[in-house]
């Protein structure tokens, strides 16, 4: 019977294959044991880890070497940032980047102006963000010295560091932001007020 | 028109066709045209001519008559590279969002990424830092799960003085698909998280290098490293080739184009969790790490920006409900401005952290009224009224608006947002 013969051949082949693969250490197994923890993926090179590891912690960990002054920052800002944020970071009509300066004491007024100066809790976030995302049209194009310098300038425009300030990994981590304690860490608050009333309920307030 | 007349009409046409056939080819054509005209809509053109061949086109697209069912961008941002577009909720059925209609929110455009070049690195406080190719990722055990994703800025217009004119704009930063991917806990197991590891920085490979801090608890719970969306690869707008998905959490945290996960001992305080995506309270303090999207529902038909066509009579009220805290328990609908509420029918068993479709038949008597829906989730949380929400949070909160949305029905059947100017 040709059918049976074919089957036999297939079975024999499978047995040979199984024996061969077991010999080479590739035992077939299904289920969870099929993937062992460290089988997949490879170890990143030191170069790769260094190049990719760009985040700056709020305590200043991972800030790179280099430095920049307020006056150097002013020059860089004028040529690479001002077109979108205004000459002095004031933002305004037609500026695609928005305001980076001012808004002091506005957070509780009902008309808050949230800027680096009035709202941001950490100066390290300024370095991290400008380095990874700005200028908007050429992200990651600035050197550490340039990022330190524009950070110094934006902080100076907000009256947080003096005119002669120089930012580096020591000084930037020490800058105290005005709104440092302005945040309460919590998950979304549950409102318990509204009940699932079914009959004779208070109508929805649809006044503007 | 009765059925008998209908059949008679076709008969008449057919008789004429048969008569024409006896006169030769060109007459057949004339007779057929005459028949089509005579029969009019009784025999549609689609039955008189052959249709399109297969693979026209190879990747199928909606009917040309659905051309208005599209995402629409906000007009509120100064650049369309950091901007958003809304899902047309008013045109969708069920709970699944088609991939081409999934809402968008990018902070510096949609990157073009070759999956063969893409890598995901996991490092920081781990025993074995590892880099995964897409092929590596796809060899891990995977799952498919249905979850919604909602931008925490969805409905932000409703806090302020300019509420949105239609449901697409007021609620359309919301979509729901079937995601396929590897549990993040599986990958964390592979790298071995050190005991001090409490937060994970997730970073995207886009021009914003988008970053958020993810609490370890969530990472080990239901977080997914997703590469599939409704059965196909992720769309570029949704993070192709791979993204993070944190079910029930604000959309921004589900980092797209995921390239790096770094385990740390504290939150990283990125710009997107300090300057943005924090909720300013009236006393000037801001809530931070408000991750969960709380229960919310909205009627999508009839909905603001639309119309009840054809006057008074039966109307099928239908909408969607969801909760980042779990399953929808029930949805109540009011057709009298909130004075009384009826429990709507839910389509099937609600899934956790997914949209649930609700329906309620209604007989509209033609008089102006206000309709609204209100969800209760499995934790017992009841969707708040706008008044309750704003009295607790003020108007500068911006994110996480989840209040009941009342739609006004006008005498002419026009449906408007009850809070919008001119409504």
From TrEMBL, chain B:
InterPro entries linked: Ig_E-set (IPR014756), MoCF_OxRdtse_dimer (IPR005066), Mopterin_OxRdtase_euk (IPR008335), OxRdtase_Mopterin-bd_dom (IPR000572), OxRdtase_Mopterin-bd_sf (IPR036374), Sulfite_DH_SoxC (IPR030835)
Protein name according to UniProt: Sulfite dehydrogenase
First-tier enzyme category under EC: oxidoreductase
Domain Moybdenum cofactor oxidoreductase dimerisation: 289-396
PANTHER family for the chain: SULFITE OXIDASE, MITOCHONDRIAL, SULFITE REDUCTASE
One of the record's GO molecular function terms: sulfite dehydrogenase activity
Superkingdom, natural source: Bacteria
Pfam family, any one: Oxidored_molyb
Gene name as annotated: soxC
Domain Oxidoreductase molybdopterin-binding: start-end pairs: 107-269
